[in-house]
Structure formats: C-alpha cells, structure tokens
Write a structure and sequence with these properties.
Layout lengths: L1 E10 L2 E11 L4 E5 L6 H8 L7 E6 L2 E2 L4 H6 L1 E4 L11 H11 L6 H11 L15 H13 L5 E5 L7 H14 L4 E6 L2 H7 L2 E6 L2 E7 L3 H5 L4 E7 L2 H10 L3 E9 L4 E8 L6 H10 L4 E6 L4 H15 L4 H12 L1
Parallel strand pairs: 3-8, 3-9, 6-7, 7-8
Antiparallel strand pairs: 1-2, 1-4, 4-5, 9-10, 11-13, 11-14, 12-13
Bound molecules: adenosine-5'-diphosphate and magnesium ion (MG).
C-alpha cells in the first residue's frame, strides 16, 4: 500500500531524514513515533506530497507521489500538524470547499453527511469554525481528511493542545477509522501509539530505530523478556527442562505457590519471545501450564532505550564525542 524507499531530506545543512525506508500494508494502523525534531512531520509531508524529498521515493499503491501527485493524493487523507482550516467558514461550507478542491465525484450531500456523522460534528455543521473549541476544530480537520473517502489516512500529532477528554475522543475516532482505512499516526506520545496502533515505527534523528508489532516491540528491544510461568510438575525436572530449552537464557523456581503448581521465572535470550515454545515444550512433557505472564519492559523504557542506543551509535562522529567530553567536564 505504502512504500517509502531510502528517503533523504536535507534542509540546507540539516539532515532531517537520513535514508528512511518502510512499507505499510492495507488495513494496518501504524504509529510513527519519535521525539520532537526526529523527522516525523518531514516524512509525513513528503508522503502526502506537501514537500519534496532530496532523494528516495514515496509510493502509494505503486504510484509515486512526485511523478503522479494528483493520482497519489486521491489515495491519502492528511491531517497536518496545523490543519488548514478557514475560520470564517461554517463547518459545512468548509467541507463543501474541500469537496470541490479534491474534485470529488461522490454524491455531495450524502457523502458530507456521512463524513459529519463519522466525526460526530452534525450538530455543529452550521457554526463558524472560529467559534468551535479546539477539539471540534480537530474533528473538522479529520473530516477534511476523510472527504473523498481515501483508503489511507495520515494524522500528524492529532491530539496536541487538546484536553484529556478530547484526547480520548480523538483517539477513539482514529481507532474507529482504522477499521476501514490504513492509518498512520505520527506522534511523540508513547501512550497514544500503544492505545491505538498495531505496529510501531520509531524514528530518532532522521533514522528508523525500530519497526515492530506493538505486542512484540518489548521483546525485540528490551534485549530479552521475562516471563513468569505456573506449571504443575516435579520441580527439579521442570527446571532442568526449562534451562535446557533453546532460547532460554535463565530460569529459576519461585517456589510452590498455589495447589500443586510452582511458579518459575524464565528469561529469554535477546530478541526471542519464548512463550509459545515454553508452552509447547512443557505441555509435551505432560505438565499442565496453568498460567503465564510476561513481565517485559514497558514501552516507555523501550522507547528511551531505542532512542539512546541510537545516540550511542552516532557517537563515533567527532561532534558528538566533543559533546560527550564537554558533558563529562561539567
Ligand atoms: P518532528 O515532526 O519529528 O518534530 P520535523 O520533521 O518537524 O520533526 O523536523 C526534523 C528536523 O528538521 C528538525 O531538526 C527541524 O528543526 C528541521 N526542520 C523541519 N522543518 C524545517 C524547515 N522548513 N527548515 C529547516 N529545518 C527544518
Ligand atoms: Mg512534527
């Protein structure tokens, strides 16, 4: 659906994107996560045809955004960081304007009614955008992205500046849109991707530092995963079996806990999710597994570790060495 290959963007001497590649399949809800200044907006603006790249390509359904922008843009609805709203128009006037701008061919009344219902803004359709709260303005911004019913919707920092109730509502709306659209949610907020996305791409200083399913990302990045497993079976034999499994770095008994089961702490080798193999091996020996809980690092730890690992790897450059020295002087 979306293919980004070797994207580079320089603003003068600033390298905002350094060889960024990823692809997104239809129906995915992907979080594009990174700290401020990481290059998220730059990447999203290039993908949506608002900005040209220095080199590399962005394709939607095989259509290159630079070679055939009109066709490519029909496939994408975009909510930029600062939505392009006309404050002196009413909601419905604005949406009609966007409809014309996009050269839509769907039945106008019916389509705009549907869009207003999806973003729940029907009661406000005749109000001036100027008089709407930030939360409702953001809904109008989302409505604008939905006009024309594009298969891909891209949100750039959609909840910045909203109050907690509005944040929950906008996240719910994005999640609902994910049922019928391919969604990219660009944000610096971890909880946001965790709440909404199936997959997380982490970007830092213009480079992709992680790209994983949300459920797997802790395994891949935390350098091992801790699992607590409750097994009914002879303690020593169970422990020997656990220690002998490939992919297990460490196992210990936590002692007898309830009824005839014993809890064990198992640590897997880096990058391995041991849970399925653990279940299969233990139940194959005829010992029932009656509970399993993963106690891996939370996303916040992972994000910080992914971002700082990336910083360490760039420390070969003389500039960052100097900063490190300067820091140690203090
Ligand atoms: P993010 O959206 O992740 O916060 P941006 O893509 O906005 O990051 O910015 C990436 C880098 O490019 C930052 O260092 C930023 O200062 C720089 N940058 C962004 N836009 C411009 C611009 N128009 N001119 C010069 N530098 C820019
Ligand atoms: Mg940004």
């Amino acid at each position: 659906m979306i293919n980004i290959e070797h994207l580079v963007k320089n603003y003068g001497k600033i390298e905002a994107l350094k060889d960024v590649s990823f692809s997104i399949q239809p129906g995915e809800i992907v979080g594009f996560l990174g700290p401020n200044g990481a290059g998220k907006s730059t990447a999203m603006n290039i993908l949506c045809g608002y900005l040209s790249s220095t080199s590399g390509s962005a394709k939607i359904n095989g259509i290159d955004i630079l070679e055939n922008p009109i066709e490519a843009k029909k496939l994408i609805g975009f909510l930029p960081e600062i939505p392009p709203l006309y404050l002196d128009m009413t909601v419905i006037e604005y949406l009609k304007f966007v409809y014309e701008l996009k050269g839509c061919t769907l039945n106008r009344e019916k389509h705009l009614d549907e869009v207003c219902s999806v973003v729940e803004i029907n009661e406000h359709r005749n109000r001036l955008i100027r008089n709407l709260s930030k939360g409702y303005r953001q809904r109008v911004g989302i409505a604008q992205a939905l006009v024309g019913n594009p298969p891909v919707i891209i949100f750039d920092e959609p909840t910045v500046g909203l109050d907690p109730k509005q944040i929950v509502e906008i996240r719910d709306l994005i999640r609902r849109l994910g049922a019928h659209h391919t969604v990219i949610l660009s944000t610096h907020i971890l909880g946001e991707v965790q709440a909404v996305c199936d997959r997380i791409i982490i970007i830092n200083k213009g480079k992709i530092v992680a790209d994983e399913k949300t459920e797997n990302i802790s395994t891949v990045l935390s350098g091992g995963r801790d699992v607590t497993v409750k097994i009914c079976g002879p303690e020593k034999e169970v422990l020997d079996t656990l220690c002998g499994m490939s992919g297990v770095a460490f196992a210990e008994s936590l002692g007898r806990q309830d009824m005839d089961s014993i809890s064990y702490h198992v640590k897997s080798s880096p990058g391995i999710d041991i849970r399925k193999a653990l279940f299969n091996t233990i139940s194959h020996r005829g010992w029932p597994v009656i509970g399993m809980e993963s106690t891996g690092a939370n996303l916040e730890d992972i994000f910080i570790s992914a971002v700082s690992e990336n910083d360490e790897s760039s420390e070969t450059s003389s500039k960052s060495k100097k900063t490190k020295k300067e820091r140690s002087k203090k």
